[in-house]
Design goal:
Layout: H1 2-13, E1 20-24, H2 27-30, H3 55-63, H4 70-76, H5 93-107, E2 111-115, H6 118-121, H7 132-147, E3 151-157, H8 164-167, H9 176-192, E4 198-202, H10 207-210, H11 212-216, H12 226-251, E5 258-262, E6 265-268, H13 273-296, H14 303-310, H15 320-326, E7 331-335, E8 339-342, E9 350-353, E10 356-360, H16 376-390, E11 394-398, H17 415-433, E12 438-444, E13 464-466, E14 478-480, H18 482-492
Parallel strand pairs: 1-2, 1-12, 2-3, 3-4, 5-7, 6-8, 7-11, 11-12
Antiparallel strand pairs: 9-10, 13-14
């Protein structure tokens, strides 16, 4: 009876007064200016797109397989072409950010999540000194945000590393990247310790298993033993994350460094115990493994059978286990877009999801324009499961709806996006009532940008429309969608008026 009353009171109170309503982007998808300001070429600058491709071809080639062939990589690093490499042009946030930040202020954002471009700070990744012009750019961007009352949530690496780290070292399979990442993080922490509020070393670290180029910057078809390369690369990223935590303790002295995964919320396809076991197994391998290492500081026992099955032998050097144990993260964050189901049977409809080319569809859920299951209850479930397991503060780092928007009379009437966001805000409110410690929510992407999967502009997430098409044509002018005005009211009322 007492619990019931408390829950009711929590629902009435809603979100904490200091809840961080925000929005998120990634530098590789928004900035453009790929060869300005002393920036070196990044791995995301090498992803190819042809506007002549039809929908099916786009999704077959790009959307859920971010792998890249050696010959395509070699071609990419030898050209300044932007027509076929849309991440090189983005939405020109590099030049447009002063006006965009004004829109963020009008929207009422409490916090803004963006990534920092490694190749803008260290053009080759192993340069003797950082690029001062790149640092000054972030000086200006961060100060503009602060001047407009917006906190900063900075991601140190969001899928992009300098291409030289692939050419010279082979990507994250090389342990040398741990030291280079730590040096990069040390520069950022020293420069921005007083202005950045939260830090995220590595975006969606579980991407290593699902999107090899995005996650660990390896050329998959050149690996003799792909699984060995993937898990060794992941070990190096775990070490890099721990090194960042250690450096933050030393330089910043605040508990503000988190971990992030792409959350794959998974349900059993049936109540068959085999489906339940399959769900547990998939959940462990897709989500929990990564958080277990970064939040608990050690490899979980359930990974040993998988390593044996895959013939994986991780090279763990002296001091690695202590580093992981002593430098666990302060909070957990995740992206949440959709859910999926697991089953030992194959008698289910196949659909798509974040970083997943084919998953079983849930017959109880609707799908987005791009086949992703729309499941707001899944967000509440995910928040509860993670908080039950780790008892650490949580942050929804990405959540949003990709859709085909139509600009009409200077706006977009996106009632479908408002419905999606409203339902997910309610799910967060309910999770808080359940007892979850939720810090904030940074909607993805607060402004339209080049979609990471298909590399198109027509898969739009923002509450701000950017007039640019898949070929890069358009005025690049910004327009407020109906969802902009909805989110503004939501933020101003702290989630009460939705």
């Amino acid at each position: 009876m007492i619990i019931s009353v408390n829950v009711k009171e929590n629902i009435m109170k809603g979100f904490p007064e200091d809840f961080l309503w925000g929005g998120a982007i990634a530098c590789s998808q928004a900035d453009g200016a790929f060869n300005e300001g002393g920036k070196g070429l990044s791995t995301q600058d090498c992803r190819y797109f042809d506007a002549a491709w039809d929908f099916d071809t786009i999704y077959k080639k790009n959307a859920y397989v971010s792998d890249i062939r050696k010959e395509d990589f070699q071609k990419a690093i030898q050209t300044a072409d932007t027509a076929h490499y849309p991440l090189r042009r983005g939405i020109d946030f590099y030049h447009e950010y002063p006006n965009d930040v004004k829109l963020f202020k009008e929207l009422g954002l409490k916090i803004f999540r963006t990534s920092i471009c490694w190749s803008r700070i260290f053009p080759n990744g192993d340069d003797a000194e950082p690029n001062e012009e790149g640092l000054r750019y972030y000086d200006s961007l961060f100060q503009a945000l602060k001047d407009n009352g917006i906190k900063i949530f900075a991601t140190i690496m969001h899928y992009d590393i300098p291409v030289n780290l692939v050419v010279k070292y082979g990507g994250w399979k090389n342990r040398k990247l741990v030291d280079l990442f730590a040096r990069y993080a040390e520069v950022l922490f020293t420069r921005y310790k007083d202005i950045v509020d939260y830090w995220l070393p590595i975006n969606e670290i579980n991407a290593a298993r699902f999107a090899h180029w995005d996650g660990i910057s390896i050329i998959a078809d050149q690996q003799e033993h792909l699984d060995q390369t993937v898990f060794q690369s992941l070990h190096h990223q775990f070490l890099a994350n721990a090194r960042a935590v250690a450096l933050s303790k030393k330089i910043i002295g605040k508990k503000n460094v988190g971990a992030m995964v792409a959350a794959f919320t998974i349900y059993p396809g049936t109540c068959d115990p085999r489906d339940v076991m399959q769900t547990l197994t998939d959940q462990r391998y897709s989500n929990y493994f990564y958080f277990d290492v970064m939040a608990r500081g050690c490899y979980p026992a359930y990974m040993k059978p998988l390593f044996e099955k895959l013939n994986v032998h991780i090279q763990i050097e002296d001091g690695d286990e202590e580093l992981l144990r002593d430098n666990t993260v302060d909070f957990l964050s995740f992206s949440y877009y959709a859910s999926q189901i697991a089953s030992v049977d194959e008698d289910f409809e196949v659909t798509t999801g974040n970083m997943a080319g084919s998953v079983y569809a849930n017959p109880y859920l609707k799908k987005s324009d791009f086949g992703w299951s729309v499941d707001n209850m899944g967000l509440r479930i995910t928040l509860n499961k993670l908080y039950d397991r780790y008892q650490l503060p949580l942050f929804v780092a990405e959540n949003g709806l990709g859709a085909f928007d139509q600009l009409e009379d200077g706006t977009v009437h996106d009632a479908y996006r408002i419905e999606y966001l409203k339902n997910h805000v309610e799910a967060m409110r309910d999770a808080i009532a359940d007892g979850v410690d939720l810090i904030g929510y940074t909607m993805w992407g607060i402004i339209d940008l080049v979609a990471c999967g298909p590399l198109t502009m027509d898969k739009r997430y923002g509450v701000i429309y950017v007039d640019r098409d898949n070929e890069g044509n358009g005025s690049n002018k910004r327009y407020k969608k109906d969802s902009f005005h909805w989110y503004k009211v939501c933020i101003a009322s702290n989630g009460k008026n939705i």
